[in-house]
Amino acid sequence: MKQSTPNGKPLTSLKRLFPLITILGLAAWGADIANANDLVNGNLDAISISSQNNPTPNNWTVDAFRTLSGTHFDGCSSEPWCNVADPSGYGLFFKPFQGTVGDEITVHFYQDNPATPGTKFTLSGYAAGEANYSGFFSTNTPVPATLFSIVFLNSGGTVLASNVYDLVANGLPSSGPASMALFTTPQVTAPVGTVTVRAGASMYNTYGTGGGQSFFVDALDLVSEAPPGAPVITNQPSHKTVSAGATTTFNVGVSNAAGVTYEWQLYSTNLVNGGSISGAATPTLTVTGVSSSDVGHYRVRVTNGGGTVLSSEASLEIVGISFYPVIRIEGKIGDVNVVEYSTALAPTTWIPLSTNTLTTSPQLVLDTTSPGNNTRFYRAVYQP
Ligand SMILES: [Ca+2]
Question: What is the sign of the dihedral through the CA atoms of 49, 52, 56 and 62?
Answer without folding.
Answer: negative
